[in-house]
């Protein structure tokens, strides 16, 4: 039994006509012409620079070209976008920003923003956020960008597995990739991001601590469960067997001897579970959902045992250095903030830069 937590959306392209194995793009623009468009726009982007500055600026814009051009045959809709006036305006703006930044990651981020415009730009809220992101991407400090990205991921991406050890390992690998920079040790980064409009500081509030975030999101991992050999245990087995599921969906609670629990990471995700058997994979049905909820209602509610499970869970978290670093840093933040629309776009594309396989969550 495994949670399904993936969303796929296709990008929007110009109309195409397929004949055999040949695809004719009706927008009428070729890869050669796209490269020409990019280069035709460089003089406009670099207007008003002195001769000395133009050399440096051109070298930097060339780095953007090196990143965007390999994408045109990989990203649906990117090639015909070079004939779109709105895309050309954004492309020129990206060239202007590339010209004034020396940070290598900025060329990658600008490329991802151009791609994001193609894939998500039909939504005007997204378009406004993307344009604003291009405007400010070169002004965001390195550690502030890293901190913003972690805050966004902490709110949006979680392991899908119901196995606690596997889930914690996935978390550790994810944050190991995201903590690519020393995290800010003072609160200047909050003011910096607030000034840029990517977060809004919330007065007189405090962020939840990592232990509260993790134990809340992983309430399935930190459940006490059902003690083996009890009436509740026998009832749970009967419920599971009555709907034709295997009793192995009850697994040992690694944080509490002689207790079992359903192999679910988050108890609210029951509706999105899938059932795997020798016939393949299918979505869980309503009868099964209700049965599993009945099993969860049999979980022991002992407060002392619950606290013991949470403590052991957090001890396992601390055994992973990236998660320990995350916890110490996050818990040191004084105050609270929310991430704005433009902040979410910037954080998302930076997270995708670090972990390309992250699912698409932008609408």
Task: Give a verbal description of the structure.
InterPro entries: Vpar_1526-like (IPR053773). The protein has three domains: 49-138, no CATH class; 140-216 and 313-354, no CATH class; 225-300, no CATH class. It has helices at 31-45, 51-68, 78-81, 85-99, 104-120, 124-136, 142-156, 164-178, 188-196, 210-217, 231-242, 286-296, 303-318, 321-331, 341-354, and strands spanning 2-3, 16-19, 22-25, 199-202, 226-227, 250-252, 259-262, 273-277, 280-283, 336-339. α8 crosses α14 (321-331). By secondary structure, it is mainly α. The radius of gyration is 25 Å and the shape is elongated. The model is unreliable at 1-27 (pLDDT under 50). It contains 15 helices and ten strands. A three-stranded antiparallel beta sheet has the order 1-8-9, with no helix packed on it.
Percent helix range: 40-55%
Domain module count: 3
Cα-atom Rg, whole angstroms?
Answer: 25 Å
Number of continuous helical runs: 15
**Major β-sheet, in short?**
3 strands, antiparallel
User: What series of H and E elements makes up the topology?
Assistant: EEEHHHHHHHHHEHEHEEEEHHHEH
Please give the order of strands in the largest beta sheet: 1-8-9
Tally of DSSP β-strands = 10
- Overall 3D shape: elongated
Derived from helix and strand composition plus strand pairing, the structural class reads: mainly alpha
Task: Report the β-strand fraction as a percent range.
Answer: 5-15%
Mean pLDDT: 89
| Low-confidence runs | 1-27
Kindly, what is the distance between the CA atoms of the first and last residues, rounded to a whole number of angstroms?
Answer: 28 Å
């Amino acid at each position: 039994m495994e949670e399904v937590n993936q969303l796929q959306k296709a990008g929007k392209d110009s109309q195409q006509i397929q004949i055999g194995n040949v695809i004719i793009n009706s927008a009428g623009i070729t890869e050669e012409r796209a490269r020409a468009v990019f280069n035709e726009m460089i003089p406009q982007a670099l207007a008003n620079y002195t001769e000395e500055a133009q050399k440096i600026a051109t070298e930097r814009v060339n780095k953007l070209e090196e990143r965007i051009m390999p994408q045109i045959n990989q990203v649906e809709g990117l090639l015909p976008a070079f004939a779109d006036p709105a895309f050309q305006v954004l492309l020129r703006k990206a060239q202007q920003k590339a010209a004034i930044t020396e940070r290598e990651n900025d060329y990658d981020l600008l490329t991802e923003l151009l791609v994001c415009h193609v894939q998500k730009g039909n939504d005007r809220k997204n378009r406004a956020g993307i344009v604003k992101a291009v405007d400010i991407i070169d002004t965001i400090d390195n550690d502030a960008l890293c901190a913003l990205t972690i805050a966004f991921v902490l709110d949006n991406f979680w392991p899908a597995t119901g196995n606690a050890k596997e889930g914690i390992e996935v978390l550790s690998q994810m944050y190991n990739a995201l903590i690519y920079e020393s995290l800010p040790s003072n609160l200047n980064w909050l003011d910096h991001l607030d000034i840029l409009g990517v977060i809004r500081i919330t007065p007189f509030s405090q962020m939840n601590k990592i232990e509260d975030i993790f134990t809340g999101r992983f309430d399935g991992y930190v459940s006490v469960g059902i003690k083996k050999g009890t009436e509740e245990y026998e009832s749970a087995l009967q419920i599971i067997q009555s709907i034709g599921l295997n009793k192995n969906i009850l697994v040992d609670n690694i944080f509490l001897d002689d207790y079992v629990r359903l192999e679910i990471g988050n108890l609210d995700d029951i509706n999105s579970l899938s059932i795997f058997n020798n016939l393949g994979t299918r979505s869980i049905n309503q009868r099964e959902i209700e049965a599993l909820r009945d099993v969860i209602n049999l979980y022991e509610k002992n407060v002392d045992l619950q606290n013991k499970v949470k403590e052991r869970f957090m001890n396992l978290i601390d055994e992973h250095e990236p998660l320990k670093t995350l916890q110490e840093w996050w818990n040191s933040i004084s105050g609270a903030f929310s991430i704005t629309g433009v902040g979410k776009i910037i954080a998302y594309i930076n997270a995708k830069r670090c972990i390309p396989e992250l699912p698409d969550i932008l609408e």
